[in-house]
Specification:
The chain has about 375 residues and is an alpha+beta fold. It has helices at about 1-20, 30-35, 110-115, 255, 260-270, 350-365; strands at about 60-70, 75-85, 95-100, 130-140, 140, 145-150, 150-160, 165-175, 180, 185-190, 195-200, 205, 210, 215, 230-240, 245, 250, 275-280, 295-305, 310-315, 315-325, 330-335. An eight-stranded mixed β-sheet has the order 5-4-8-2-1-15-19-17. Strands 9-10-11-20-16 form a five-stranded antiparallel β-sheet, with no helix packed on it.
Length: about 375
């Protein structure tokens, strides 16, 4: 009891001293803390008060022509990209910024240094990836450039004048493919061969806008991408045993599919049910490819897009079905997966889900674009 009494006395004494203190006024403001990120009450010539484009809205653009080849022994992508960059802004541009996302996948990058121990999802421990930039030209002439982490700045000898000017940038490059590329690219071993998933695979223009100017935040693995719109033509050269699936429309199907596969694709384009293009027991068979040896170049185009990606493997099952859009236009849902992932409880219903999702959201929100 004595110990309890002493403790109670100390506690009461403490409360007594606190009661004598004069409370200080807090500077806390919930209005500042929860202030809206965007102020829609302000209107500018480029942005209206509702957040929609204003009368003088502008947006730069970038068109891409890309040619790459895959070395499936060394796991290397090698090629070049030609970018036609158009300046619609009211500013003269003395330099350009590009994104070099692959530079995140090496031990010297900021992203690589943030995951030095385990690597994993956003890094690759001990993996020396990143772009090997072989040459950079502006309008056919060698360019003055420097690389900092996941970005490249190109200095222009003649500024891009406001509103109407354009320039052509050409970059030759190569990179080692990381096994784990921040969930967006990498390799996966399957029973019938390696699966390559390629995103962030070519140097891309940073956005120049009316709010930030050049948007040059380094790529750290997490986060999405802010990119200019443009038109894409890209060609991917792979071993003849491979199947490539990519953004946009394949423009040379006769080189890439057998006559039977083209017939099945035509059937799928008119079918609401999934049509098998390459069956499970056809994977890896000689008659499943138009060439038995050498390489095949798959050529794609994609209009008014921000980005393109592709996947390639000799392990793919392929199926497809028609997508019906509210306007009456048609598109094609296609799925590619290995035999390990076949079955209704795995990926065999993938095309059904893709078709259903695009049709549903095209009616509810905004119609899926099929501009080619």
């Amino acid at each position: 009891m004595k110990k309890l009494f002493i403790a109670a006395t100390i506690l009461l004494g403490s409360f007594g001293s606190m009661a004598q203190q004069i409370p200080q006024k807090s500077n806390y403001s919930q209005y500042d803390l929860f202030n809206p990120l965007f102020n829609y009450t302000l209107s500018t010539p480029t942005r209206s008060g509702s957040g929609t484009p204003g009368a003088n809205y502008w947006q730069n653009s970038a068109d891409y022509k890309i040619n790459v080849s895959l070395d499936d022994v060394k796991n290397i992508v090698d090629g070049d990209v030609e970018i036609t960059y158009k300046n619609a802004s009211p500013d003269k541009l003395n330099f350009l910024w590009l994104q070099l996302d692959q530079n995140q996948f090496n031990t010297k990058s900021r992203g690589g240094l943030t995951t030095p121990i385990s690597g994993g999802r956003f890094g690759n421990t001990g993996f020396e990836g990143g772009y090997q930039v072989k040459s950079v030209t502006i309008d056919g002439k060698p360019a003055d450039f420097y690389v900092t982490d996941t970005r490249m700045q190109i200095k222009l000898s003649t500024p891009l004048v406001e509103r109407t000017s354009a320039t052509k940038i050409k970059i030759t490059f190569s990179f080692n493919i990381p096994k784990y590329g921040s969930d967006r690219m990498g390799t996966q071993e399957a029973k019938n061969g390696t699966i390559y998933e390629l995103a962030q695979w070519y140097p891309r223009m940073c956005v120049y806008d009316d709010i930030e100017g050049w948007n040059v935040l380094p790529y750290l693995g997490a986060g999405e991408f802010y990119l200019e719109y443009g038109n894409f033509e890209y060609a991917v050269t792979v071993p003849s045993t491979h199947i490539v699936v990519g953004s946009g429309e394949l423009t040379n199907p006769n080189d890439c599919w057998t006559s039977e596969q083209q017939k099945r694709l035509a059937e799928a384009a008119n079918s609401d049910k999934t049509v098998m293009v390459i069956e499970k027991d056809e994977v890896g068979k000689e008659n499943s490819r138009p060439k038995k040896e050498g390489k095949i170049t798959w050529k794609f185009r994609c209009s008014m897009a921000r980005d393109v990606a592709f996947a390639t493997s000799k392990a793919f099952i392929i199926d497809a079905a028609r997508i019906n859009l509210p306007s009456g236009k048609k598109s094609l849902a296609m799925s590619a997966y290995p035999v390990e992932s076949s079955g209704d409880k795995a990926w065999s219903r993938s095309t059904e889900y893709v078709k259903g999702a695009i049709e549903y959201y095209s009616k509810w929100l905004y119609e899926y674009s099929v501009v080619i």
